[in-house]
Amino acid sequence: xxxxxxxxxxxxxxxxxxxxxxxxxxxxxxxxxxxxxxxxxxxxxxxxxxxxxxxxxxxxxxxxxxxxxxxxxxxxxxxxxxxxxxxxxxxxxxxxxxxxxxxxxxxxxxxxxxxxxxxxxxxxxxxxxxxxxxxxxxxxxxx
Length: 143
Description:
Blueprint lengths: L2 E7 L15 E7 L2 E7 L2 E10 L4 E9 L10 E3 L24 E3 L2 E3 L3 E7 L2 E2 L1 H6 L12
Antiparallel strand pairs: 1-6, 1-9, 2-3, 4-5, 7-8, 9-10
């Protein structure tokens, strides 16, 4: 069975030109085969506030640019695999645009991207499915 997952890019990101004692925090980049995590010597994650309930997931990150240079980066928030369809979970991930996901920088709304991948036996088969015009999420009209 294919495992599906979505990754939301560009989460709550606050970059300030202040110093911090921590470095080498993880950022993300899009690479061949999908999303790849990478270490950053320029940005530290100073705090992470994570709240999870059956109805809501709320995450707040505070990042600091520890250099004197302007830094642009991608922040990723991996979301769980989409389970096989059943009556019990038919609304789970019905459509990624229904996530009500919001991102802000300095409390101002910013756009984000949703990256969906199909993994089969540990290999990314997203491009193959898209070539065959197979939708990654059968309820998402964009695919």
